[in-house]
Amino acid sequence: xxxxxxxxxxxxxxxxxxxxxxxxxxxxxxxxxxxxxxxxxxxxxxxxxxxxxxxxxxxxxxxxxxxxxxxxxxxxxxxxxxxxxxxxxxxxxxxxxxxxxxxxxxxxxxxxxxxxxxxxxxxxxxxxxxxxxxxxxxx
Length: 139
Known about the structure:
Layout: H1 19-36, H2 41-57, H3 65-69, H4 86-94, H5 98-110, H6 124-135
Helix pairs in contact: 1-2, 4-5
């Protein structure tokens, strides 16, 4: 509790304040995390979930969590996922073995989950890396 300058074993002091002050402290803490650290929005959300659990388990239920969450940063995308284009699928089919061609056509037409083909002896990670490497030859 370095932010509020409270000793490590004195968490009970957090419960002695008025709920409005607690709510302001949490909002200020979120602002501090956004501005003064390099934490991602997901990490900040996890920190605030722990704070919420602490107050909920200690029967402080009058906090307006909707208002508190409005101080959290917007979620940022960490990975840019997108479906393969028809041209990319065509290039994959042209540059691979008949076995992998069947796998590519099955995956592109039915969109199975990642581990769905592992039961048939296919390693999904190997296939994903193979397909990604094949597409890295973009003109």
